[in-house]
Description:
Peroxisomal Thiolase, Chain A, domain 1; globular; 7-stranded mixed β-sheet; alpha/beta; 7 strands
Amino acid sequence: MIKIIKHSVISDFKAFTDNKLIYTHTDNDRFSEFLSSLYRFLVISYPKFFKMDMLSKLGFLATELCVAQTEFSKTENKINTAIYLLSNASSLDTDINYQKTLNPEAYFPSPKVFVYTLPNIVIGEIAIKHKIFGENTCFICQEFPDKTVFDYIYQSFLETDIKNAIVLWADYINGNGKAYAFLIERETSSNIDKDDFNEKTINFLIFNK
């Protein structure tokens, strides 16, 4: 059995941890300003954040909310930790921005934008920040949760030495984004009272259904 240790939500200019409202942005006009404001509110020291594209910022912050003040965050060199990223729009928003730099009337390919034209860069940013060296996989799917992906995650826990993982849905397009992050672990005597990691539990925790 796999247990949910902690989860977070970023949606509608609000941030939650374990269904507790952590932060609300009063200006609902620009999602980019909301993410920068949330970053400062969380008192994170990671200057590279401001160079990231929007998808990476969103996934990064959802993960920070999810792992803060956990035993996981205190562990160095996480070789048995996996990261599973799920997304619908993938890196499309950044792809569009990069395409604009290729237009003849304003031609100059932007390397700093090109870096983020793969969705798995989000995984890289998280892995670097938290020194994670385990398996990582990016899935493009229509919605969250996705049964096929969850079956894959369970199989990975069964067949490998993964001890814990970050499961992250991050989706951003046209100025709007949502993210759900879960810190999950193999069941032990110390976490047996935690919620099971499955579609039913997630639908209840995130969507109240």
